[in-house]
Amino acid sequence: MTAGEATVETTTTEQRRAALEAIAAEVRVCSRGKLAQGRTNAVPGEGHPDTEVMFVGEGPGQTEDAQGRPFVGRAGELLVRLLASIGWRRQEVFITNIVKCRPPGNRDPEPDEIAACAPYLQRQLEVLDPAVVVTLGRFSMAHFRPGERITQIHGTHASAPPATGAREALAYALFHPAAALRSPEVERQSYDDIAGLPRVLTEARTRRGGLAAVVTATTDQAISPAVPTELLAGQIEPPELGDDAPTLF
Ligand code: URA
Q1: Which has more confidence, 183 or 229?
Q2: Contact at 8 Å (CB) between 85 and 231?
Q3: What are residue 92's DSSP bridge partners?
Q4: CA distance 238 to 228
Q5: pLDDT 10s digits, 201-215
Q6: What is the pTM of this model?
Q7: Which of 7, 73, 130, 234 is the most interior residue, by most CB within 10 Å?
Q8: What is the distance between the alpha carbons of residues 108 and 70, in angstroms, rounded to a whole number?
Q9: What is the CB < 6 Å shell around ligand 1?
């Protein structure tokens, strides 16, 4: 390499999968933060090693603590419906949390607990190098969009601070699905907000010098989805998506 030449880091799917699994293995036996004392299982996060989109929630709840997987309770079911409304599937993104162990009684995570888990999130971001980080709720928003208010910035994006580990990502703010479960208005707003996500991904790809023009045709189909009211109300399951559905891949 000559002086001044850029270093282009390339990793394969298998290398990313292995790196993510190595982080997950550390998280499962971690005793750094005081939340580790009360957990049944740590919840490292999971998802596709090739994804361009990482969802970051707050912390595991009861069901997640029992299963060791993120967003598998009622909030997770809503997250899956939100993803389906733009033609995406949970296994195509990566889903994790600010804290990797359940706060007792689902209380808010405390600053020392967030700090204890931050290196894991940073490493997950460095491995995946996502184009978009979707923040779910206040605590995740505070990490990637510090100083903002969720009621003012939901459905908007800004550059994620590179110090988080997200080298060149847009941070897109959504309400937490648990808040949407408590309020039909927040739930409706959440469907509106997530409808903007494919366009933000296109913009992020453009900023990173990607193939925005090629993906526009795919993402345009998903920009203004007509969401059936029964799906919004949780009365029907999201449709099984065929191989030709507009997806991330
Ligand atoms: N709420 C979160 O913030 N994360 C989960 O994994 C589940 C519920």
Answers
A1: 183
A2: yes
A3: none
A4: 10
A5: 999 999 998 544 444
A6: 0.85
A7: 130
A8: 17
A9: 57-61, 64, 70-71, 73, 75-76, 97, 178
Copy the structure tokens of residue 238: 């999201």
Mutate to test the pocket of ligand 1, among 55, 72, 97, 99 (most ligand atoms within 8 A of CB): 97
Which residue pairs, CB below 8 angstroms and at least 24 apart, start in 144-149? 144/56, 144/171, 145/171, 145/173, 148/173
Among 71, 82, 90, 141, name the best residue to mutate to test ligand 1's pocket (greatest count of ligand atoms within 8 A of Cβ). 71
The token pair that represents 161 in the structure block: 């601070």
* Cα(73)–Cα(227) distance, integer angstroms: 22
Residue 240 has pLDDT above 90, yes or no: no
SS (H, E, C) 91-146: HHCEEEECCCCCCHHHCCCCHHHHHHHHHHHHHHHHHHCCCEEEEECHHHHHHHCC
Each domain of the chain, given as residue ranges in start order, spans: 33-232
Distance 248 CA to ligand 1 centre (A): 22
User: How far, in Å, is the centroid of ligand 1 from the Cα of 60?
Assistant: 4
Q: What does the mean pLDDT of the chain come to?
A: 88
DSSP state of 237: P
In the prediction, which pLDDT does 9 show?
Answer: 62
Which residue's CA is the closest to the ligand 1 atom numbered 7? 71
CATH code: domain 33-232 is 3.40.470.10
Q: In the structure encoding, which two tokens stand for residue 174, read together? A: 């959504």
Identify the residue with better confidence: 244 or 157: 157
Ligand 1 atom nearest the C-alpha of 176 is 3
